[in-house]
């Protein structure tokens, strides 16, 4: 079993904040990666290609994705700061996805060698479009490491 940092899935919502607080209280490790997943609009750009020149569509997708990534970076930094205030060594990360947020979280967990994943049971933050479907269920079903799901 990996002995690396805890991975906190954080979207800035109240539920994610509670999960962060509960994980910080319950886990023995004091090293963390805080990941915020953001949704690329790449897959949604198809209709724009019908009405607009390709370069206009590419630029619009790039601009929208850049803004979504900036928001996600700010949210991840916020989560990492909350953990630092609780005495943790926390690193913020972001990951884009065009499919399932849980799969993106698992990819970051694997890269970080995470020993556990902490998540809330609902996503209602600014990035909730990324979290349609059940991220906590996807993590619980597919994670090779323990998942702490905070209500």
| Shape, per Cα inertia axes | elongated
Strand % is: 15-25%
The CATH topology annotation reads as Rossmann fold
Question: What integer is the average pLDDT?
Answer: 87
Oligomer: single chain
**What proportion of the residues is helical, as a percent range?**
40-55%
> By CATH's scheme, which homologous superfamily applies?
HUPs
**How many helices?**
5
Taking the sheet with the most strands, its summary is:
5 strands, parallel
CATH class: Alpha Beta
Distance between the termini: 25 Å
Low-confidence parts? 128-132
| Structural class by helix and strand composition | alpha/beta
In the sheet with the most strands, the strands line up as 3-2-1-4-5
Quickly count the domains: 1
Order of helices and strands: EHEHHEHEHE
Rounded Rg? 16 Å
Q: Do you know the CATH architecture?
A: 3-Layer(aba) Sandwich
| Beta strands, count | 5
């Amino acid at each position: 079993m990996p002995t690396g940092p805890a991975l906190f899935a954080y979207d800035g919502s109240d539920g994610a904040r509670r999960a962060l607080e509960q994980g910080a209280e319950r886990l023995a490790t004091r090293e963390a990666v805080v990941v915020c997943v953001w949704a690329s609009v790449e897959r949604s750009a198809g209709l724009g290609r019908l009405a607009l020149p390709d370069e206009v569509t590419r630029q619009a997708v790039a601009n929208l994705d850049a803004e979504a990534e900036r928001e996600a970076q700010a949210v991840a930094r916020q989560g990492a700061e909350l953990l630092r205030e609780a005495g943790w060594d926390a690193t913020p990360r972001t990951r884009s996805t065009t499919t399932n947020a849980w799969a993106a979280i698992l990819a970051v967990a694997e890269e970080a060698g995470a020993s556990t994943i902490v998540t809330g049971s609902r996503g209602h933050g600014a990035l909730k479009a990324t979290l349609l479907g059940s991220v906590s269920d996807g993590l619980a079903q597919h994670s090779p490491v323990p998942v702490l799901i905070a209500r």
